[in-house]
Amino acid sequence: MADLTPIEESILSAMKELGANKDTSIKTADDIMRKCNKPKGLVTNTLVTLAQKGIIKRVAREKAAGYFIINTK
Cα(41)–Cα(11) distance, rounded to whole angstroms? Predict the structure, then answer.
């Protein structure tokens, strides 16, 4: 993935390791934060950016939003 920052790559890598690659295995920002060992604010902001780029999808849920990878090109 050409135009990703190092933090975006780190978070995508954590999501892949967690298996968040389809809508049946979504992960929360907390799950991703623990896996990549980054501050929650940074993780949340980066997840928003990745969603805007069309790489991941955000799923609104009752308690916490979930995320999964939709574009791994």
Answer: 13
- Identify the CATH number of the domain in which residue 35 sits: 1.10.10.10
Report pLDDT digits (tens) over 22-73. 888 899 999 999 999 999 999 999 999 999 999 999 998 888 889 999 976 5
Residue 1 lies in a domain: no
Instruction: Read off the pTM.
Output: 0.88
- For 57-66, the CB contacts below 8 A with 24+ separation are 57/23, 59/23, 59/26, 64/28, 64/29, 64/30, 65/28, 65/29, 66/26, 66/27, 66/28
The answer to whether position 58 is within a domain reads yes
- On whether residue 61 sits in a domain, the answer given is yes
The boundaries of the domain holding residue 15 are 6-69
